[in-house]
Amino acid sequence: MILLALTGVLLLAVAGCVCVVWAARGGPRWVQGVSAVTLAAGQLVRSRRFRGTNGGSGNDTAALGDGGGGNDGGSN
Fold first, then answer.
1. More reliable by pLDDT, 47 or 7
2. Rounded-to-integer distance, Cα 60 and Cα 68, Å
3. CB neighbours of residue 54 within 10 Å
4. If DSSP codes are grouped into helix, strand and coil, which group holds residue 75?
5. Residue 53's CB: how many other CB atoms inside 10 A?
6. CA-based angle 47:49:54, to the nearest 5?
7. pLDDT for the residue numbered 54
8. Within its chain, how far is the Cα of 43 from the centroid?
9. Which residues make Cβ contacts (< 8 Å) with residue 34, sequence separation at least 6?
10. What is the pLDDT of residues 18-74, one digit of tens each?
């Protein structure tokens, strides 16, 4: 059952991405609406993910994949 739900979420995400690309190329009005909803949902997910990272300190570099190793290339 969980596999069916995850497959449905994946299909909705792919369909949303297709609508974003189609709307960027001047698609019909309904595609532009779906595109706006998809972009807003993506922004909401992104802001929630970053807010939870690093205790909400505002430092999003760890979430962006810099590794957080702390090696700045300076002298020893």
1. 7
2. 11
3. 14
4. coil
5. 16
6. 110
7. 57
8. 6
9. 15, 16, 19, 23
10. 999 999 999 899 999 999 999 999 999 888 877 665 555 555 555 555 555 555 555
Q: What is the pTM of this model?
A: 0.59
Neighbours of 62 (CB within 10 A): 13
d(CA 43, CA 40): 5
Are the C-beta atoms of residues 22 and 35 closer than 8 Å to each other?
Answer: yes
* Structure-token pair, residue 60: 């999003």
CB distance 19 to 31 below 8 Å: yes
| Angle between helices 29-52 and 2-24 in degrees, nearest 10 | 120
Yes or no: say if 64 and 54 are a contact pair by the CB < 8 Å rule: no
Position 50 scores a pLDDT of 72
DSSP-derived 3-state class of residue 45:
helix
Report the C-alpha gap between 34 and 15 in whole angstroms. Answer: 9
Residue reference for tokens 């997910």: 45
